[in-house]
Amino acid sequence: MKVVLLSGGGGGARFARGLDGVLAPGELTVIGNVGDDLEILGLHVSPDLDSLLYTLAGLIDLERGWGRAGETWNALESAGAWGGESWFRVGDLDIGLHLVRTQALRDGVPLSEVTEQLAGRAGVQSRILPATDDRLRTKVVTPAGTFPFQEWYVGRGHRDDVDAVEYDGAADATPAPGVLAALAAADAILIAPSNPYLSIGPIVAIQPIRQAIERRGVRCVAVSPLVGGAAVTGPAGRMLSRMAGGATPRHVTDCYVGLIDRLVIDESDFAAEAPVELVMAKTLMSDHEAERRLADVVLETSCA
Amino acid sequence: MKVVLLSGGGGGARFARGLDGVLAPGELTVIGNVGDDLEILGLHVSPDLDSLLYTLAGLIDLERGWGRAGETWNALESAGAWGGESWFRVGDLDIGLHLVRTQALRDGVPLSEVTEQLAGRAGVQSRILPATDDRLRTKVVTPAGTFPFQEWYVGRGHRDDVDAVEYDGAADATPAPGVLAALAAADAILIAPSNPYLSIGPIVAIQPIRQAIERRGVRCVAVSPLVGGAAVTGPAGRMLSRMAGGATPRHVTDCYVGLIDRLVIDESDFAAEAPVELVMAKTLMSDHEAERRLADVVLETSCA
After folding, report:
1. B185: exposed, middle or buried (C-beta count within 10 Å: 0-12, 13-18, 19+)?
2. What is the extent of the structural domain holding A32?
3. Residues B16/B5, Cβ–Cβ less than 8 Å
């Protein structure tokens, strides 16, 4: 069985780990968001790809939910003391990866190839693909102005309300090698319980990817990021309320018109009328076992 | 009193600290070697400038003799695990500086300006200037082949004998802004107890610097790197024996023909006939006090 998952970091990465745990090696391809990528201290950082990599490799800091377990912060502190930017948190272990990736990118190696090499070194058996090797950057339109994603999210603590999200470069971006082939070969296409605007939006803003999903011959199932009318973490709930008019399963489906056949929602959410079939499940991934259980439910509903 | 010191890292940096301790703020300008510079993991590293900076700022690891006190090595270990080069030891605190400098250089800021900013941030009151902002790289010719400096020194543990030293880029290099002005304004020019071939050679291989010293109107005094016929650390003794025919004060003066008026040598060395006046002193800098005492002796002999 070949499964393709569209995902951001965080909860999406945990869902990816659930799938990785129940599928056979090589059956899962994760298409990761790159709209959050940034250059900091001259380093190319891909937060969502790294969350996927660290989570699937068992390197993620489980408490913090991002970055590496056992992390230290000496290089960043030093850089700050020497006058460098230190608002974006990159730890020493993390910087080791960023140095290797940045050097490879400067040498002309595409992001998809670097990502594959890193995943291979970490012993990850699922495939992690960036949505595109091209430059695609999410920008957030707020009453206080338009900001590059990380400046709004980390720099301003994502306090500003969001009126719209733009995907700079999406119009000219081509899918990374392997993305369309994976979608074409998939027995099921899944959308992780990630932020529809910030994590999935940048992926499906790439037209050939959107079209491939629109024209799918298999079922596409999304998992709602909401539990009880709010996102487990992050600003998805607030954004849905303001941009889609509410934070219910119905408003999630509005983000995925034409893209999904079913939406898996949490049992605590109200299964109102929706244009696609709603499937109830326990979507809160409180431990590895819960991740795998959710993966099983989603795989079942994507094939049944 | 205006003093210019030509220096490498290590013992040269300690001598610079002695001078910095006995001179008034702003009286000392150190012209540092950049022939050892390298790019590693995409970072521009200037080992001798950094040793000068760390030593004058009180940040140096006194035991190790290079790098920062309290250093950790997590980023390098991580980079190595992800497939990056890890043969050249850069610590996390050190990497913080390299990131800031590399980013500035990529933005077009000259090395001399970056160095000045870093020294200013660290509260260093003496001036540290790279010999040149241009690319100048020391290469070492050995029976086993010709190697970039750090590949021979660190990578091969400087085990190969040295037949000759080449300074790639020196012919086209221009002195960094401030270098010639400092030499012209100096009341005394000093050469640190650094390796004549590897630390001082790359500086005086820049022809305008060499000419400025050759045509000096003030005294130029060098401190011999030898104590008892051998270098305190590093390969200077072995190199002098093989390349100059011996490791005595006389062979040190052979490296500085036309450049110096006096050579300060250690009391343990044999003051044989030499083309310039030899001045006996305790040159072993076993502590801060010894550094300052040596600085006093050298300053006296440069003016008396």
Report:
1. exposed
2. 3-303
3. yes
Confirm if B303 and B27 have CB atoms less than 8 A apart. no
Spell A137-149 as b/e; 16+ CB within 10 A means b: bbbbbbeeeebbb
Tell me the one-letter amino acid at A71: E
pLDDT band per the 50, 70, 90 thresholds, residue B233: confident
The phi, psi pair for A302, rounded to 5°, reads -85, -15
Which positions in chain A touch B96 (Cβ < 8 Å)? 74-82, 84
Residue of B166, B157, B162, B165 whose CA lies nearest to B144? B162
Q: How far apart are CA B202 and CA B212, in angstroms?
A: 15
CB environment A54-91: b (16+ within 10 A), e (fewer): bbbbebbeeeebbbbeebbbbbbebbbebbbebebebb
Strand, coil or helix: what is A296? helix
Q: At residue A281, what are phi and psi to the nearest 5 degrees?
A: -160, 170
Smallest Cβ–Cβ distance between B84 and the set A41, A77, A103 belongs to A103
Q: Which two tokens stand for residue B189?
A: 């020019």
Nearest CA in chain B to A98: B79
Would you call A42 and B74 a contact, using CB atoms and an 8 Å cutoff? no
Query: Coil, strand, or helix at residue A139?
Result: strand
Six-digit token string for A64: 């913090």
Measured CA distances, B168 to A91, A108, B173, B214, B263 (Å): 36, 26, 9, 22, 28
Predicted confidence pLDDT, tens digits, chain A (304 residues): 999 999 999 999 999 999 999 999 999 999 999 999 999 999 999 999 999 999 999 999 988 989 999 999 999 999 999 999 999 999 999 999 999 999 999 999 999 999 999 999 999 999 999 999 999 999 999 999 999 999 999 999 999 999 999 999 999 999 999 999 999 999 999 999 999 999 999 999 999 999 999 999 999 999 999 998 888 888 999 999 999 999 999 999 999 999 999 999 999 987 778 899 999 999 999 999 999 999 999 999 998 7
Count of structural domains, chain A: 1
**What is the per-residue pLDDT for A160?**
96
Q: How far is B106 from chain A (nearest CA, A)?
A: 9
Instruction: Indicate which CATH number applies to the domain containing A50.
Output: 3.40.50.10680
In angstroms, the CA B259 to CA B278 distance is 14
Which of A43, A99, A113 has the most B C-beta neighbours within 10 Å, making it the best mutation to test the interface with B?
A99
Alpha-carbon gap, residue B150 to B105, rounded angstroms: 21
Q: What is the ipTM score, two decimals?
A: 0.95
